Amino acid sequence: xxxxxxxxxxxxxxxxxxxxxxxxxxxxxxxxxxxxxxxxxxxxxxxxxxxxxxxxxxxxxxxxxxxxxxxxxxxxxxxxxxxxxxxxxxxxxxxxxxxxxxxxxxxxxxxxxxxxxxxxxxxxxxxxxxxxxxxxxxxxxxxxxxxxxxxxxxxxxxxxxxxxxxxxxxxxxxxxxxxxxxxxxxxxxxxxxxxxxxxxxxxxxxxxxxxxxxxxxxxxxxxxxxxxxxxxxxxxxxxxxx
Length: 242
What we know:
It is built from 8 helices and 7 strands, in the order E-H-E-H-E-H-E-H-E-H-H-E-H-H-E. By secondary structure, it is α/β, with parallel strands linked by helices. The longest helix has 29 residues.
C-alpha cells in the first residue's frame, strides 16, 4: 500500500463519488488530506469518515473552484499552513447534459467549461508554486475517453474534457525541468457517481468499478509516480483503469 505519511494531499470534488473515495483512501495511507468542495456539510461527512479511521482529521475547504479569488485564497491558506502541497487530485467535474450540439443550452455548456477548464487553470495557477515547494509534487487529473471520441450527443462533456486535457498536457510540457509529475487518469464508467447517473441513466452497471475501487487503482498509479525519478515532469495518460 502507498505510504503518504507526512504528505499534504489536496482532493477536489471531495464531497462525493471518486473524490470522496480518494480522500478516504489517502487518509488511510497516512496523508494529511485537504477536502475541497462546494458544500461544507458534505465535506464534514467525509471528514467524519476519515476520523473513524483514527487518522488525523482532514482540513475542510469549501471552495468554488470556478472563482479565481476563491482558489487563490485556498492557495494562500495552504502556503501559510503547510508551505507546500505534495499531491493534488482534481476529481471535481460537471457531467453536463446529453443533447445535440445544435440544441445546447449555453448556460449548461458554461457550467461544464467552468469546472473542467476554467477551474483547472485556476488550480494550475495557484498550486504550481506549492507543488514546486514539495520537491516532488504530483498532480492527478481525471478525464475520460469522450475527450477524443466525442460521440453523438456527448459534445458538451467532450468539449470540457478536451479542454482539460489540452491545459494539462501543455502544463506538463512546460514543467520538464520542474520537480513535478503530472498524470491524466481515465477511470472509465464508474457506478454510484453523479456522472454515471446523468450520462447513462438506463445503462447496465455490470462490470463497472465503484468509486472505492477506482481510488485504490488511482493510488497505485500515484505510488508508481512517487517512486519515479525526481526532477522530471512526465505526463502519464491512461486510457482506462482496470
